[in-house]
Design brief:
Helix content is 11%, strand content 32%. With 260 residues, it is mostly beta strands. It has a single domain, classed as Umud Fragment, subunit A. A hairpin with a 6-residue loop joins strand 3 and strand 4. It is globular.
């Protein structure tokens, strides 16, 4: 019996080893984990959402390729990003990963007028989406506190943000939050997206550092294709607390939630 028991332990260890190895290879080749650290993509993505980024969606680039022979510019295979895709990319000047939504493709003219996105001279369609509400409290490991339309709101109070449903020219629709039409980036010049680059915006329009802020002024600016990591398709897990281990703060309704 002891011999059989020892054999069973060895087989179990082998199974765990191969499972971890396959998971590691799978992660390296196809997916990359990503935690949402800020509220710039609310209410599509919340602080504490955990997701896997599809690294093959746009092919391998400088920052998604797991091999030694990776392209310095451009991509290996893959499809072009589409308007409405939620994408993780490497910030061109800061060397950290960001997540935003593609709204402008190469050649597009993008502008924001009174808080409304304009693409090639035409305002996007907007429909009322009701209000987004959350608790006015510190969120995530950074302890960020949300901005509210109904401020001042005391700690623990209900924070309200107006929500719109934005439809892009290709028919893709998603929620956006917009408290004011007079924020610093609610009126911009016309940005012409260069070839091989993309224009990104956060869904939480008054709380997003995105392509509306030019790189020359310390902002994001346009993002070249080689900085794309991959597309975010689904939230796997979500925690509203300061730590993943605070199980009482888990959000069961967001487990395996599709990202639209």
């Amino acid at each position: 019996m002891a011999k059989n028991s020892d054999g069973g332990i060895v087989e179990t260890i082998k199974t765990i080893f191969w499972a971890l190895l396959i998971a590691g290879v799978f992660r390296t080749l196809f997916f990359q984990p990503f935690w949402i650290p800020s509220g710039s993509m609310k209410d599509t993505l919340l602080i504490g959402d955990f997701l896997f980024v599809n690294k093959m969606a746009y092919g391998y680039s400088r920052y998604s390729c797991p091999f030694a022979a990776c392209p310095i510019e451009g991509r290996i295979l893959g499809h072009e990003p589409e308007r409405g895709d939620v994408v993780v990319f490497r910030h061109p000047t800061r060397g950290v990963d960001f997540i935003k939504r593609v709204v402008g493709l190469p050649g597009d003219k993008v502008q924001v007028i009174n808080g409304v996105l304009q693409i090639n001279g035409t305002p996007v369609q907007l429909a009322d989406g009701g209000n987004f509400t959350e608790v006015k409290e510190q969120q995530g490991p950074q302890g960020l506190v949300p901005r509210c339309e109904n401020d001042p709101v005391g700690q623990g109070g209900t924070c309200v943000k107006p929500r719109k449903i934005e439809t892009l020219p290709n028919g893709r629709s998603h929620d956006i939050l917009n408290i004011s039409d007079s924020w610093v980036a609610d009126n911009t010049p016309v940005f012409t997206v260069p070839a091989g680059e993309y224009f990104f915006m956060g869904d939480n329009r008054d709380n997003s550092e995105d392509s509306r802020f030019p790189a020359a002024a310390g902002g994001l600016g346009f993002v070249p294709a080689e900085f794309l990591v991959g597309r975010a398709d689904r939230v796997i897990f979500s925690s509203a607390g300061r730590s993943l281990f605070f199980f009482w703060t888990w959000r069961p309704d967001r487990f395996f939630k599709a990202i639209e």
